[in-house]
């Protein structure tokens, strides 16, 4: 079916109707809220595209120059020509860079249905004009005041004639023509220059203070001479009692035609701050990636027997976060990052028990069994998609409550987009180049300028959320090993699906970005036939890779893991024992070796090499876990590249000799020992007074405390007792790994409706076209159709009304002729709709027809059809 473009659309609906399917797909892709749910026709689509919430969302996703273009249209006449818009953007001097970039910005506004009409009649959507246009309460973002016509609308005709005469114009017969003449004077550059040449110097200073906004000023009841000079000539007009305003036309003359002080047609370039060898960057990033894995493992081992308690409001307490930071030997913000990352990856969760605590999930055990590169890839993938923002921890929410780690209120839907965009900007730099953070923030602010009073936040003021997200991203990429020394690594590039590219994209650093990136699902499509710019259109530059779909991201992350794998250090099967009761692990250890060594010794320092220290308590811990002295000697001899030092062998033998000499069981509690002299020593020790011991027999002491308290008390006194069971066997103390029930990782909070895929777009456009056909298909005029000739008129746009006999006769005739009909239909729920159908068969009180609206063959009961009308021929 033909969708020819109307030469001059009279509404946004008509402009959308003139678009082809490719252009409609571009609109729905850039504004996915418009198809949630799918509109019934193009009129409903246009209505939805003009709602305040949808327009505001679209404006907030424009880049700075596209937003400046929309702001210029908001203060331009409605409609405005392309030449008028170009004058407002480029000024009298005609900035060539602005002239070259304006078609792209205008095409973006048209694509998003914020602007419609041809180059001679450009119209900004009325809702956008209301959101951007000036008013006394909300000054224009361009700093321009109302026009002369608007500002003088409440003035008396006599006062208007006085102003016209003082300005050097002839008086007119009415106020309307007088204001028209005054407007023309202010728009004439030569005449305005002559008028202002006679202005007193203080008057010029007043104009210079108001010219870039705000355009309002205060005056007294008896203004000074220079103010009176401006008021008499209409260069300042009264707004409210005691307030004057600089008319728009006067400001534009003083600005040399510019709507904005500084038009920004091109995005600021991301500048490199330092440059390193790509090999050094990759090696540094790989080392940090290994540290990231070790830190997450250490965190989960610390919580292996049950982590911190869950606060009643959710999350970790400040004290538990501090304790975790000390255990990981990092700052509290960094500890919050690792905890949140493990949570986002589904490795920790709440156990859901009565005494609710955080603990590792069963997925953690599966994660531990994977190769290091795969474990890192899972962390990186979770980080990219997570909307939880650990940088907010410690801040305050809207109700002035502290935001806690793992607590509510940390989700920010913009986080994944900002992370992807920062990585894309880093990928645009030469390999090995680390960016200047300030230039990254400036680029992001150009791509998504804030609207409102904080839009142009200056350095030292409160940063907007996107800037803070970008700063946190630069820090987190370094912690996670995506960057090394600030530069994006090769496996970091692979996360974007751009691994193997030689050098930065051609347009990534200097070409203007599409306002639809970085959220568009693909490259923007060209505008439709009714909206293209035949004279001024320029191709829109590439804006870098768009965010990947979840399936594509999984593939890219796996590729990043494969690139990282050769750079990670190979686990070692040996340590170096030293005479000072320490062992040095010169690199990562194989898991069985690391696990047993972690029981037998305490970690003293971490870094490129890990230092373990053997102490009586650590050796006793290994003996309590069921190891014998012979086992420990064999273990150390088999995994040390140096001989076992004699002091270490003596330490193991000494602790083993005393281990279990005292035996503690449950009576309430008792101590038994074959050496009664040792029991006498304990009874005489003043430190044992708190245990309240009493001798029952020469080799048995009874205590009123429980066995655990008695065990710890005697160990604190320097003894090495062992717990025993009711049968008299030594109890082996093994670590109890506490796990939560199966848990899924937290779902990211979406930033509005998801971008539609190609299948949904095709189906939505087909449904909208069909619905629009049903709503706008031409009907035969009265006297041409059988229904009309029988005296059953119908109104345009309403449901047709015909009798049952007339409906049946028209259906049967259409079956024979193959024509399409317009019908009104009421379903079983009582919802009325209009459809275009092509009847195929009529029998048994039903009509079987091809429904153009649903794009399928359907059967309708005749008694539910309210009426039928023939369609006029095209």
From TrEMBL:
Biased-composition ranges, Low complexity, are 504-525
Could you tell me which residue ranges the Helicase XPB/Ssl2 N-terminal domain spans? 575-697
Q: What are the residue boundaries of the WYL domain, all occurrences included?
A: 806-868
Region (Disordered) residue ranges read 133-155, 495-553
Tell me the InterPro entries matching this sequence: WYL_dom, XPB/Ssl2_N
Specify the superkingdom.
Bacteria
Name under which the protein is recorded? DNA-binding protein
């Amino acid at each position: 079916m033909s969708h020819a473009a109307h030469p001059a659309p009279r509404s946004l609906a008509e402009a959308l109707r003139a678009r082809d399917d490719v252009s409609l797909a571009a609109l729905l892709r850039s504004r996915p809220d418009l198809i949630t749910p799918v509109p019934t026709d193009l009129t409903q689509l246009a209505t939805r595209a003009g709602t305040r919430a949808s327009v505001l969302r679209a404006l907030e996703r424009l880049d700075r120059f596209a937003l400046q273009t929309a702001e210029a249209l908001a203060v331009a006449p409605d409609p405005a020509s392309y030449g008028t818009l170009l004058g407002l953007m480029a000024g009298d001097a005609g900035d060539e860079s602005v002239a070259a970039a304006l078609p792209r910005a205008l095409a973006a506004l048209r694509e998003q249905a914020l602007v419609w009409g041809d180059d001679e009649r450009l119209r900004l959507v009325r809702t956008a004009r209301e959101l951007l246009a000036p008013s006394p309460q909300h000054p224009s973002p361009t700093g321009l005041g109302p026009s002369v016509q608007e500002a003088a609308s409440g003035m008396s005709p006599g006062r208007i004639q006085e102003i016209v005469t003082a300005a050097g114009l002839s008086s007119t017969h009415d106020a309307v023509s007088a204001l028209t003449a005054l407007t023309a004077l202010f728009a004439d550059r030569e005449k305005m220059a002559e008028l202002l040449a006679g202005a007193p110097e203080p008057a010029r200073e007043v104009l210079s203070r108001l010219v870039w906004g705000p355009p309002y000023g205060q005056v007294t009841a008896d203004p000074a001479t220079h103010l009176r000079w401006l008021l008499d000539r209409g260069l300042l007009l009264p707004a409210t009692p005691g307030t004057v305003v600089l008319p728009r036309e006067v400001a534009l003359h003083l600005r040399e035609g510019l709507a904005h002080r500084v038009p920004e047609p091109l995005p600021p370039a991301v500048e490199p701050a330092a440059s390193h060898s790509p090999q050094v960057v990759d090696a540094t990033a790989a080392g940090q990636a290994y540290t990231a894995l070790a830190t997450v493992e250490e965190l989960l081992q610390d919580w292996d027997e049950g982590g911190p308690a869950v606060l009643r409001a959710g999350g970790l307490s400040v004290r538990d976060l501090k304790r975790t930071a000390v255990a990981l030997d990092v700052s509290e913000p960094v500890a919050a990052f690792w905890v949140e990352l493990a949570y986002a990856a589904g490795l920790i969760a709440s156990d859901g028990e009565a005494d609710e605590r955080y603990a590792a999930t069963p997925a953690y055990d599966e994660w531990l069994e994977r190769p290091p590169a795969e474990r890192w890839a899972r962390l990186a993938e979770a980080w990219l998609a997570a909307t939880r923002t650990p940088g907010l921890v410690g801040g305050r929410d809207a109700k002035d409550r502290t935001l806690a780690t793992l607590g509510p209120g940390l989700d920010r839907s913009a986080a994944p987009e900002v992370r992807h965009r920062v990585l894309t900007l880093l990928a645009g730099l030469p390999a090995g180049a680390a960016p200047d953070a300030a230039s990254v923030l400036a680029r992001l602010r150009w791509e998504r300028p804030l609207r409102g009073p904080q839009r142009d936040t200056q350095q030292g003021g409160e940063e907007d959320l996107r800037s803070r997200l970008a700063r946190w991203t630069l820090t987190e990429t370094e912690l996670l090993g995506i960057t090394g020394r600030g530069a994006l690594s090769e496996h970091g590039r692979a996360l974007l699906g751009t691994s193997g590219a030689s050098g930065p994209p051609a347009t990534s650093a200097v070409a203007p970005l599409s306002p639809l990136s970085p959220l568009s699902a693909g490259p923007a499509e060209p505008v439709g036939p009714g909206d293209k710019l035949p004279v001024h259109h320029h191709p829109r530059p590439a804006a870098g890779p768009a965010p990947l779909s979840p399936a594509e991201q999984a593939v890219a992350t796996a590729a990043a893991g494969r690139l990282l794998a050769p750079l990670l250090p190979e686990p070692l099967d040996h340590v170096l024992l030293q005479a000072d009761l320490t062992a040095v692990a010169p690199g990562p250890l194989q898991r069985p070796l690391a696990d047993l060594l972690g029981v037998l010794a305490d970690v003293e320092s971490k870094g490129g090499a890990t230092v373990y220290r053997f102490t009586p308590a650590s050796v006793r811990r290994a003996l309590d876990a069921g190891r014998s002295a012979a086992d420990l000697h064999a273990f150390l001899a088999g995994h040390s590249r140096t001989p076992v030092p004699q002091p270490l062998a003596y330490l193991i033998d000494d602790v083993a000799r005393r281990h279990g000499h005292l035996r503690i069981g449950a009576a309430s509690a008792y101590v038994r020992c074959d050496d009664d002299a040792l029991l006498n020593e304990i009874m005489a020790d003043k430190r044992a007074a708190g245990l309240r011991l009493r001798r029952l027999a020469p080799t048995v002491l009874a205590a009123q405390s429980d066995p655990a308290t008695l065990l710890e008390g005697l160990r604190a006194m320097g003894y090495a007792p062992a717990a025993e069971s009711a049968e008299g066997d030594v109890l082996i103390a093994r670590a109890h790994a506490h796990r939560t029930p199966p848990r899924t990782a937290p779902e990211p909070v979406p930033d509005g409706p998801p971008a539609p895929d190609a299948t949904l777009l095709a189906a939505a456009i087909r449904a909208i076209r069909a619905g629009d056909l049903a709503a706008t298909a031409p009907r035969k005029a009265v006297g041409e159709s059988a229904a009309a000739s029988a005296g059953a008129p119908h109104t345009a746009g309403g449901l047709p009304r015909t009798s049952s006999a007339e409906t049946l006769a028209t259906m049967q005739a259409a079956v024979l002729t193959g024509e399409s009909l317009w019908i009104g239909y009421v379903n079983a729920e009582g919802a009325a709709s209009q459809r275009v159908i092509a009847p195929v068969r009529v029998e048994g009180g039903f009509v079987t027809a091809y429904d153009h609206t649903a794009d399928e063959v359907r059967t309708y009961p005749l008694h539910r059809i309210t009426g039928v009308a023939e369609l006029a021929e095209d």
